[in-house]
Amino acid sequence: MPVNFSKVLIAPSVLAADFANLGAEVCGAQAAGADWIHLDVMDGHFVDNLSFGPALCAAVRKQVDIPTDIHLMIERPDHYLDRFLPSASNVTIHVESDDNDIAGTLLRIREAGCTAGLSLRPGTPFEVIAPYLDQLDLVLVMTVEPGFGGQSFMPEMLPKIEKIAAERARLGLMFHIQVDGGIKAPEARLCLAAGANVLVAGSSVFGKPDLAEAIRVLRS
Ligand code: DX5
Ligand code: ZN
């Protein structure tokens, strides 16, 4: 997954898919033009929801050829990381997690041959991730409070995206800026204009009758 942040990438989130037909769902998303498959892992502690773990990520990985993007909304990414790495192209951890060696965990992700992402909740200021920018392939700006699909986009996150893009340019770094939560076509436009290039989309892709059309609308 080489970093080219001028290309718009669409990452449908499995959280909104039909779990009973997951193979068909993710293959359908790939055939419809999805660039990555986004996997939202929740532990019931870091967020107030439980989703799925390594076994489901491995099952999805077997079904698709496009990169798998694992978003760990868990308290101890350092503890569980090795169980996800074999199924991942990218792993994103949260800066607010209880991992007391964020830099070390990011390095472990890269040493395993994956790209490394760092995410921040809506209430977390940009300054908290600033020390890690040169160790990242991706910054994930949460545009809803993590935990559930189908929430409303928070427009007050747009200045944060702009700030991260400005810092990236100032420092001459190369990382994706991803947004996640409440992304439909109007929100996609706002986020792309602010400097994001990877759009996570749950309910605006899975559940739509025509996945290809849903992805095309987001991309344009
Ligand atoms: C929220 C998850 C998202 C979620 C997005 O905690 O990280 O990936 O599935 O869902 P929508 O696009 O429906 O807001
Ligand atoms: Zn996510």
Report on this structure.
By secondary structure, the chain is of the alpha/beta class. It has one domain (9-219): TIM Barrel (Alpha-Beta Barrel). Helices cover 32% and strands 19% of the residues. It is built from 7 helices and 8 strands, in the order βαβαβαβαββαβαβα. An 8-stranded parallel β-sheet has the order 1-8-7-6-5-4-3-2. Helix 5 (158-171) links the parallel strand 6 (138-142) and strand 7. The longest helix is centred in the C-terminal third of the chain and has 14 residues, at 158-171. The radius of gyration is 16 Å and the shape is globular. The mean pLDDT is 97. It binds D-xylitol-5-phosphate and zinc ion (ZN). The site of D-xylitol-5-phosphate has 22 residues, from strand 2 and strand 8.
Low-confidence stretches: none
Terminal residue distance: 22 Å
- Sheet with the most strands: spatial strand order: 1-8-7-6-5-4-3-2
Percent of residues in beta strands?
A: 15-25%
CATH topology: TIM Barrel
Main pleated sheet: 8 strands, parallel
Would you identify the CATH H-level superfamily? Aldolase class I
What integer is the average pLDDT?
Answer: 97
Shape descriptor reads globular
Structural class estimated from helices and strands: alpha/beta
Q: Write down the CATH class.
A: Alpha Beta
Number of helical elements = 7
Structure characteristics:
220 residues, TIM Barrel, 7 helices, binds D-xylitol-5-phosphate
How would you concisely characterize the structure shown here?
Helix content is 32%, strand content 19%. With 220 residues, the chain is of the alpha/beta class. α3 (77-84) links the parallel β3 and β4.
